[in-house]
Amino acid sequence: MRVWSSEHVFGHPWDTVIKAAMRKYPNPMNPSVVGVDVLERSVDSRGRLHSHRLLSTEWGLPGLVRAILGTSRTLTYIREHSIVDPVGKKMELCSTNITLTNWVSVSERLVYTPHPEDPGRTVLTQEAVITVKGISLGSYLESLMANTISSNAKKGWAAIEWIIENAERALS
């Protein structure tokens, strides 16, 4: 098992970042996400928005990884659940893969909150737990996947900035 974590600060207020995060896909920074389906969306008695989504991703796994996993499959699915609390100004998003779970499990948690010292900025904390099961070179694969998650996180931050920038251009 390998744990990856990160913190990123956006130079935008929480409301702006959350609106962009909810519209994150598709984006040109991470074309591997090829589909997003909203399975369920509701507002609870406390005014929090709950969303369950299914993400379809095309990762194009390297040949060595496909050989280790014993699969040629590259289309994978991820289950995502998010809770947006507009009163408490917190968005929590949890996702986990539902494809290839016999070999690999990736559970990711993202939390968006206003910066404690500057309400014009937003803090994103991310954590991913990667577990490779029953495969030789499991530690190598966990490390490779942590590097990929780190790279994709940076693309995700850039995508949110891109969405914000394009939304502001559309309004002006």
Describe this structure in words.
29% of the residues lie in helices and 41% in strands. The protein is of the alpha+beta class. Helix 1 (14-22) crosses helix 3. The chain has a single domain (2-167), classed as START domain (Alpha-D-Glucose-1,6-Bisphosphate, Chain A, domain 4, 2-Layer Sandwich), CATH 3.30.530.20. The chain has three helices and seven strands. It is globular and about 50 Å long. Pfam families: PRELI (PF04707). This is PRELI/MSF1 domain-containing protein.
Essential attributes:
172 residues, single chain, PRELI/MSF1_dom, PRELI/MSF1 domain-containing protein, Alpha-D-Glucose-1,6-Bisphosphate, Chain A, domain 4, alpha+beta
Blueprint of the fold:
Blueprint: E1 2-10, H1 14-22, E2 33-43, E3 49-58, H2 63-69, E4 75-85, E5 90-97, E6 104-114, E7 122-132, H3 138-171
Antiparallel strand pairs: 1-7, 2-3, 3-4, 4-5, 5-6, 6-7
Helix pairs in contact: 1-3
